[in-house]
Amino acid sequence: MKLYTLEFEKPVLQLQKQLEELRAKASAEKIDLNDEINAMEKKLEETKQGIYSKLSAWQRVQISRHTKRPYFLDYVAQIFEGFTELHGDRRFGDDHAMLGGFAFFKTNGKSRKVMLIGQQKGRDVKENVKRNFGMAHPEGYRKALRLMQLAHKFNVPIITFIDTPGAYPGVQAEERHIAEAIAVNIREMSTLEVPILAVVIGEGGSGGALGIGVADRVLILENAYYSVISPEGCAAILWKDRVHAPKAAEALKMSARDLLAHKIVDDVVPEPPGGAHHDPELAAQNLKASLIKHLHALDKFSKGDLLDNRYTRYRGIGEYAES
User: Fold this and answer.
1) Which of 28, 48, 202, 300 has the most CB within a 10 Å radius?
2) Which 3 state secondary structure label does DSSP give 297?
3) β 81-85/98-107 pair status
């Protein structure tokens, strides 16, 4: 599968092309170029290591938005079994940017039922129009809440997958009270007496992410981001020009390691070099292992302890010290 190459990845692409040409020449002309090939392979690995080990916050944002990056339904197919999608908010309609339903999660050889909820983007123009680029309307958040309350009723753990630039900011969303829908979700998620895991798999933008992000454990993929505003939006406000988005990305401390250091997230899930889109199966395996670990840890708590710990977790966010 040919992947779109980001600007900072072009040296890797050039070396890969040269390596392919060397191999093709050795095969076509029946000559021994093993020394040259080995040297080129070594140089390629060193270049990859040099680039991917020192990614800036803005470069990670670019990776999180890659069009071939695995989305919610890709992880569902890789990690879970028997996913049954449930539709509609029972008030207005069915939002195709917010999906959810029951599935089975195999841990230690046993399958357990879980409720999955996630934001879904599209791969092409047609699908992006259907999915509204992963930006849910109010009915999407109300559908998510309906499914979470269903999970609460049947004592089923909830796993949410966050991947949105933000909730839809259009007139129709405002008419149907998008802010109220998100606020209600935040309030109600804090009271659900079942384990809740939230995973930021790509973009985690503003209240659109937080509307399904109040959880006992928040995990984030290595190249995902979680922020109160997009870098472009921040740059437009502070510097009056979106060209300063890279500077804004650094200032926002929105990348996984910064979020872990500030205790906004609880675990960083490693990705294959260059991002999850370079090896979706390995990315899914890493995420599955992290989900199993944290779900087992949450199983040890009573319902009362879950609620108390969840309350304490969010009360502790935002601590600062004055010098």
Assistant:
1) 202
2) helix
3) antiparallel
Q: Distance between CA 281 and CA 283 in Å, rounded?
A: 5
Q: Could you tell me if 48 and 71 lie in one domain?
A: no
In a domain, 91, yes or no: yes
Tell me which residue has tokens 């040259």.
36
- Alpha helix positions (H), the chain: 10-29, 34-52, 57-64, 72-79, 125-131, 138-153, 171-175, 178-189, 206-210, 231-238, 245-252, 256-261, 280-299, 303-315
Co-location of 23 and 75 in the same domain: no
Q: Model confidence over 222-273: pLDDT tens digits? A: 999 999 999 999 999 999 999 999 999 999 999 999 999 999 999 999 999 8
How many other β-carbons are positioned within 10 Å of the β-carbon of residue 117?
25
Q: How many domains does the chain have?
A: 2
Length of the chain measured in residues: 323
Domain containing 215 equals: 60-315
Which amino acid is residue 36, in one-letter code? E
CATH number for the domain spanning 241: value is 3.90.226.10
- Identify whether 2 is part of a domain: no
CA distance from start to end of the chain: 52
Is 322 inside a domain boundary?
no
**Do the beta carbons of residue 114 and residue 323 sit within 8 Å?**
no
pLDDT of residue 3: 62
**Joined tokens for residue 322:** 């004055």
Kindly indicate the confidence band of residue 1, based on its pLDDT and cuts at 50, 70 and 90. Answer: very low
